[in-house]
Design a protein that fits this description.
alpha+beta, 7 helices, 5-stranded mixed sheet
């Protein structure tokens, strides 16, 4: 199912873990999850329009997949309201972050090779352990300030 010019539902459902462990429910989420993915994709497509080609490295996770990958119990991935977007380098990561903020994202996770975005309307920026590149980690406060400024101006 095509969601927008550059993304399909399959990209949000793709899971190596589900395939490896034969977790079939990963690939047939409830309609409420699909509706959330559509809302999330509206933002992801705008990011893609701003920064060029991007890859969703993790989208929706059914509960069994979320457990297998070590996701938190209240992960926004469980409802289809979060995704991780791969980046090539810190400059590319910051382009993704800046675009996400411009398009209303207020929660951003900084990973080793991905940026987590979700639709929860709470301001938060966090690193994923010691694997987050130092250059990106050093921008955590700057990113928080950008989110707060964007919120104030809108």
């Amino acid at each position: 199912m095509k969601l927008s010019e550059h993304f399909t539902l399959a990209e949000y459902l793709r899971s190596y873990t589900a395939t490896k462990y034969n977790i079939s429910e990963q690939f047939s989420p409830p309609q409420s999850v699909i509706d959330n993915i559509v809302r999330l994709n509206n933002v992801v497509q705008k990011i893609r329009n701003d920064v060029g080609v991007i890859r969703i490295t993790s989208g929706y996770r059914c509960p069994r997949v979320n457990t297998r990958v070590g996701g938190v119990a209240n992960s926004m991935h469980l409802t289809g309201e979060a995704c991780d977007i791969g980046f090539r380098n810190v400059e590319h990561a910051m382009q993704i972050v800046d675009s996400a903020i411009r398009h209303g994202i207020t929660r951003i996770g900084l990973g080793a090779n991905f940026i987590h975005i979700d639709l929860k309307q709470r301001i938060d920026v966090w690193p994923y352990g010691r694997k987050t590149p130092r250059e990106l980690l050093s921008k955590q406060q700057e990113i928080l300030n950008k989110i707060k400024n964007e919120r104030t101006n809108n």
